[in-house]
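[Meeting: bench + compute handoff]

Bench side (C.D.) handed over the final construct sequence. Compute side (W.E.) agreed to return the predicted structure before the next meeting so the bench team could plan truncations. Sequence as handed over:
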Amino acid sequence: MIDIADLPAVNATLNATSAVFLVAGYAMIRRKRVVAHVTCMIAALIVSAAFLVSYLTYHAHFGHKPFPGQGLARPVYIGILITHTLLAAVTALVLAPVTVVRAARQRFDRHKVIARWTLPIWLYVSITGVIIYLMLYH
């Protein structure tokens, strides 16, 4: 059984896994492997949803963890954290749902237009999530 105190490591792993599925999904659609693309993107959604549940669970029990670093590391961390948080909210609340709905409705012309924004932003959020974990806990 995983202890709640271990959830930050789980969260970083889920973020990294999401990034892997996103890159794989992109590679699959570039190769016209639509079923593999859909599978990867659904997996990225599921992993990201699991991250959100895990993240909220951890913070409900332990609250906010202050950044332990000093000097230049502090403004770098704050910059990454602010952009990560804002873009995560935009991705979760707007970009990902609209992208999925357009694909589900088979509006692939419109899906492709928004996916060109969703993918790099979602990747940034996933990767910076791992960076934030490393900066806070290691």
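W.E. noted at the follow-up: Residues 100 and 111 are 8 Å apart (CA to CA). C.D. will use this when planning the next construct.
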